[in-house]
Design goal:
The complex is a heterodimer of chains A (234) and B (305).
Chain A lengths: L1 E10 L2 E11 L4 E5 L6 H8 L7 E5 L4 H4 E4 L11 H6 L10 H11 L15 H14 L4 E5 L7 H16 L3 E5 L12 E6 L2 E6 L1 H12 L2 E2 L5 E2 L6
Parallel strand pairs in A: 3-7, 3-8, 5-6, 6-7
Antiparallel strand pairs in A: 1-2, 1-4, 8-9, 10-11
Helix pairs in contact in A: 4-5
Chain B lengths: L1 H12 L12 H33 L11 H14 L2 H4 L3 H21 L5 H23 L4 H11 L8 H28 L3 H6 L4 H23 L5 H13 L3 H25 L8 H20 L3
Helix pairs in contact in B: 1-2, 1-12, 2-8, 2-10, 2-11, 2-12, 3-5, 3-6, 3-7, 3-10, 5-6, 5-10, 8-10, 8-12, 11-12, 11-13
The chains are: A alpha/beta (234), B mainly alpha (305).
Chain lengths: 234, 305
C-alpha cells in the first residue's frame, strides 16, 4: 500500500505536481499516463522517496529501500557488469543476503536467465533494460515504481514485460508504471491514471479512462483503442 | 592469489640492495630492507585501494588520487613542512602535514562534488592538482637554502630509499585506517554504478558514501605520500589492469587492487634498485613511466559506451 495526498512539487515558481492524491493497493497494476512533461517521473520520484514534495505527504511502507523499488527512466551502468551482477544490485538493501536464488528467479522472470553471464556490452538494449528490471524484481519489494519499463523494447518484449508486471501484481505486489503508450497496457493493467500539467485528470479502469488520456495527449481514440492524430490529421 | 604474489615479491625485495644480491647481515635486514619492503607493500596497497574506490565512486576509470589532487595536496602539505623547517624540528611533522594536506584536498573536492559530478568533478580535481603543483613549485622557487631545495626535490620524486622502522609507525596507522574505510565502503560502490538516484533508491546515501571514500583515500594517500613521496599512477594502473581479469563490478576490485598495488610497488622498488644507474632511479619516475600509457589506454577505452 502506498498513498500520496495533495502532493505538490514546485520548481521555479511553476507547479510540476499540483495537489495529486492517489492510493495504490496491493494486487493492483496501475499505469501512469500523460504527455511528456506532465509530471509522471516527478510523481514516481516523490512516491519512491527520492524527492521531497513541497506540500502534501506520502505514506509508504518502511524501510523504503527494502519495501519499495524504483526503476529510472534511463538507467545505464557505468561499468560493464554481467546481467547477473546487475540483478544482484537489487539485494543491496538486504545487505546482499540470499543473492543466488533471488537473482536467478528475477532473471528467469525477465526471460534473460540464459544471458546471466553475459556483460551489458554483449547484449541488446532491450536485454539490458530487462536486466535493470530484474534488478528491481530481485529486491523482493512490495511496491514497484517503474518509469517507462518498456522503453527500448520492441512490441513483443514490451508485452512480455507488461505480462510480467501483471503477474507480479497478481502475486500481491503494488505496481505503478509510467508508460508513454498506455493503450498497450489495456489487457494487463487494472487501473489507468492520467496526469496533465501536474494534475490528475483521469483515474479508473483503462477502458474508461483512455479517452481522458487521449484528450491529455491531444490525440483522438480510434477503433480498437488506437491513438490517432487529432481530427484533421491523417 | 595476488596477495600471495605480493608477499612473495616483498620477501624477494629483502634480497635486493646496495650490498649486492643475497641475504644481508641482520642489521641491514631488520633496519633497512624490511622497513623498505613493508613500506612498499603498505603504500602500494593504499594507492591501489584508493584508485579502485575513487573510480567506483566517480563511475570513471580515469579517476586516480594523483589526477584528482589528493597526492598533490599531500605533497604540498609535506613540502610546507620541509619549507618551514618543521620536519627538521620534528620528523612527525612530515606525515602529519601530508595527512592534513590530503584531508584539505578531500574537503575541497567534496565541496566541488556538491555542484558537479562525473567528468566535471574530475576536471575540478585536475585543477586542484594543478594548483597544488603550482604551490609546490612556488615553495621550491622561494626555498630558503640550496640544501632545503635539494631535500624537497629528491623527496618529491618519490622513493623508499633509506627508510627506517620509524617511517612504518608514521605511515602504518593512517593507511590501515584508510584502507579499512575503503574496504567497508566497497559494497555500496556497486549501487552507484546505476547512478546516484538509483543508489539512493537502494538505500545508499551518495553524499555519505562520497565522504567516507574521500576520507579513506585522504588517509591512505596522506600516509603513503608521507613516507614514499610523490608516487603517481599506481591507483590508476592497477584497477584498469584488473578489470579484464576480475570483471568491472567496483566492490570486487577494491581488495584485489590493494594487493596488486602492493605487488606493483614492491616490484617497481626492486626494479629501481636493480636498474644500474649512477644514482638510484626514483620510484615515482618509474611508476609515472608505466602509468602514463595506461592513462592513455584507459581514456580511449572509457570513450567507448
Amino acid at each position: 500500500m502506498i498513498a500520496g495526498r495533495d502532493v505538490t512539487v514546485r520548481r521555479d515558481g511553476r507547479a510540476i505536481l499540483d495537489g495529486v492524491t492517489l492510493a495504490l493497493r496491493p494486487g493492483s497494476f496501475a499505469v501512469l499516463a500523460g504527455p511528456n512533461g506532465a509530471g509522471k517521473s516527478t510523481l514516481l520520484a516523490v512516491l519512491s522517496g527520492l524527492l521531497r514534495p513541497d506540500f502534501g505527504r506520502v505514506d509508504a511502507p518502511s524501510p523504503r529501500a527494502q519495501k519499495l523499488a524504483w526503476l529510472a527512466q534511463r538507467e545505464s551502468s557505468a561499468w560493464d557488469m554481467t546481467l547477473a551482477e546487475v540483478a544482484a544490485l537489487g539485494r543491496i538493501p538486504h545487505g546482499g543476503a540470499d543473492p543466488e536464488r533471488r537473482v536467478a528467479a528475477a532473471l528467469a522472470a525477465c526471460g534473460i536467465r540464459e544471458l546471466a553471464a553475459r556483460r551489458l556490452s554483449q547484449v541488446s538494449g532491450g536485454e539490458a533494460r530487462r536486466a535493470m528490471l530484474a534488478r528491481v524484481l530481485a529486491t523482493g519489494a512490495e511496491v514497484l515504481l517503474l518509469d517507462e519499463p518498456t522503453a527500448a523494447l520492441d512490441p513483443a518484449q514490451a508485452f512480455a514485460v507488461l505480462a510480467l508486471l501483471r503477474a507480479e501484481a497478481d502475486a500481491g505486489r503494488t505496481v505503478l508504471a509510467a508508460l508513454h503508450a498506455p493503450e498497450a497496457a489495456v489487457p494487463y493493467a487494472d487501473r489507468l491514471l492520467v496526469l496533465d500539467r501536474g494534475r490528475l485528470v483521469g483515474d479508473g479502469t483503462p477502458e474508461a479512462v483512455l479517452p481522458a488520456a487521449a484528450a491529455a495527449y491531444g490525440v483522438r481514440l480510434g477503433p480498437g483503442l488506437a491513438m490517432l492524430p487529432a481530427a484533421g490529421g491523417a | 592469489m595476488i596477495a600471495l604474489l605480493a608477499a612473495a615479491a616483498g620477501a624477494a625485495s629483502l634480497l635486493v640492495g646496495a650490498a649486492g644480491p643475497g641475504l644481508p647481515p641482520a642489521d641491514i635486514l631488520w633496519q633497512i630492507r624490511l622497513p623498505r619492503a613493508l613500506l612498499a607493500l603498505l603504500s602500494g596497497a593504499a594507492l591501489g585501494a584508493s584508485g579502485a574506490s575513487l573510480q567506483g565512486l566517480l563511475r570513471n576509470r580515469l579517476a586516480d588520487p594523483g589526477l584528482l589532487g589528493f597526492s598533490g595536496c599531500a605533497s604540498l602539505g609535506a613540502v610546507l613542512a620541509f619549507y618551514f623547517g618543521l620536519y627538521d624540528a620534528n620528523p612527525l611533522a612530515l606525515p602529519l602535514a601530508a595527512l592534513a594536506g590530503a584531508l584539505a584536498g578531500a574537503a575541497l573536492l567534496l565541496g566541488f562534488a556538491r555542484r558537479a559530478e562525473g567528468t566535471t568533478l574530475i576536471l575540478a580535481g585536475v585543477a586542484l592538482a594543478a594548483l597544488a603543483s603550482a604551490a609546490v613549485t612556488l615553495a621550491l622557487a622561494l626555498a630558503p637554502s640550496p640544501f632545503a631545495l635539494a631535500e624537497i626535490t629528491v623527496w618529491l620524486l618519490g622513493s623508499l630509499e633509506d627508510r627506517a622502522p620509524m617511517h612504518l609507525l608514521l605511515a602504518g596507522p593512517p593507511i590501515v585506517l584508510g584502507c579499512a574505510l575503503l574496504v567497508s565502503a566497497r559494497g555500496k560502490l556497486d549501487a552507484l554504478a546505476l547512478g546516484e538516484p538509483t543508489a539512493a533508491s537502494l538505500g545508499v546515501d551518495p553524499r555519505r558514501l562520497a565522504r567516507q571514500v574521500a576520507i579513506g583515500v585522504a588517509l591512505c594517500v596522506g600516509g603513503a605520500t608521507a613516507v614514499a613521496g610523490s608516487v603517481g599512477f599506481v591507483g590508476l594502473i592497477v584497477p584498469n589492469l584488473l578489470r579484464p581479469l576480475l570483471g568491472e563490478r567496483p566492490s570486487l576490485l577494491v581488495v584485489p587492487a590493494a594487493c596488486a598495488g602492493a605487488l606493483l610497488l614492491v616490484l617497481a622498488d626492486i626494479a629501481v634498485r636493480l636498474i644500474p644507474t649512477a644514482q638510484e632511479l626514483r620510484l615515482g619516475v618509474l611508476t609515472a613511466l608505466l602509468g602514463a600509457p595506461v592513462l592513455a589506454w584507459a581514456a580511449l577505452r572509457g570513450g567507448r559506451p
